[in-house]
Amino acid sequence: MSVATVAEAPAAVITWLRDHRQMHLAALCDILAIPSVSMDPAHIADMTTAAQWLADTMQRTGMAHTEIIATAGHPIVYSEWLDAGPTAPTLLIYGHYDVQPADPVEAWHTPPFTPVLRDGNLYARGASDNKGQIMAAVAALEAWLHTMGRLPVNVRVIIEGEEETSSPGLRHVLHANTERLRCDAALMIDSMMLAPQHPLILYGTRGNCYLEITVRGPASDLHSGTFGGTVDNPLNVLTRLLASLQDGETRRVLVPGFYDRVRIVDTTERNLLASLPLDDASIRAMTGAPVLAGEAGYSAIERATIRPTLDIHGIAGGFTGPGKKTVIPSQATAKLSMRLVPFQDPEDIARRITDFLLEQTPPTVTLNVRVLSASHPVLIDHHAPAVQAASQAFEKAFGAPASFMIGGGTLPIAADLQHALSAPLVITGFGLPDDNLHAPDEKLNLSCFFKGSEMIAHYLALLATRHH
Hints:
Blueprint: H1 3-19, H2 21-32, H3 44-61, E1 65-69, E2 76-81, E3 90-96, E4 116-118, E5 121-123, H4 127-148, E6 154-160, H5 168-176, E7 185-189, E8 200-205, E9 207-216, E10 222-223, H6 224-227, H7 234-243, H8 267-274, H9 280-287, H10 300-303, E11 311-316, E12 327-328, E13 331-340, H11 346-360, E14 366-375, E15 378-379, H12 385-398, E16 403-407, H13 412-421, E17 425-428, E18 443-445, H14 446-467
Parallel strand pairs: 3-6, 3-7, 7-17, 8-16
Antiparallel strand pairs: 1-2, 2-6, 4-5, 5-18, 8-15, 8-17, 9-13, 9-14, 10-12, 11-13
Helix pairs in contact: 1-4, 1-14, 2-4, 4-14, 5-13, 12-14
């Protein structure tokens, strides 16, 4: 396909997309109605149903080869179209079909697996995370294949069913099939925009180290009147240990070596962050907090993206029911996580936290630290042509180029994709900050969904043009 043909193709493709919006919306509603909750054994059959639905849809779209890859957990849908030729670039598109549980179901205004259109938004579990976003890509591929009979670049599509449980199956498949999955860029459509007219591309994501800390004391719960003052209360010890991790004034983590590998961010990058429409006042308004807090010397957006964090997520132990019960608990547990920035290593951080806590644990109790998850941070060169082409595609579809920032959250599979594929990642998406991901009344803005499919259609053309 010549450069001129590629440049002209999107007009026909975009027209076809706009003429078939209701068809694509109906398809999205079909997949949203399947309760593909990966972490709930009661939905194993639904996971298989969702994978088969996607495989059938990809085949109808015109992708030359589609298969369902079995894993030790839930299946992966893999599809490819490689007829653009060996000299054309290859794009890998990533998404996931599994969703979070809908609990608490009673907090939803409409049933979570019965898609409902209201005020320009489609409400259903998985609408934004991630079925709506992956179906936007499917629509774009279908538009190209239907109007042009071919794609301008080679395309591989991977849709996994275990993203919400840290992608164990896909990790194995990636590292066992690095040559087969070779690509020149990987489009991860699992993120969001800042606003409907303000696209965003992440040039990195923070990693995560999630720990469970357990302090054990007496063999069983004790009466505080009889034994208070004679044994160490595990809850007392646990709270002292947790408090020792962070300075109360500067909010700096006090664990030796915690900041040793933190990437130095230059003035240019800090100015890039400062240019985003996310000042301290707007972020405070999003949170509803009376006053913002965090590491001294950094703005709120910097604390949420380029700086590491430490957060306690829960403390359990003793008596928490109504009324009073004077008990010294036999044990106490806390959940703790650190968001990590490039080039921090989660295993290294877990060791440092564990050693620091063990040094301070009195002989009156025992301490156990368990690593529940460890995900590496990701850093991407946002000047790479494949990433800049995505920003141009956004400008064509949404009327504005993308802004760039490091994502504060964690995409566990991103580091594996980067390592296995050795290709630039384009981490983006069409969700919005108020889409209620993982919460009741999850939604997807339909305008963003339709324009998102147009963005991907443009991106395919731009990749082909850039390659030439």
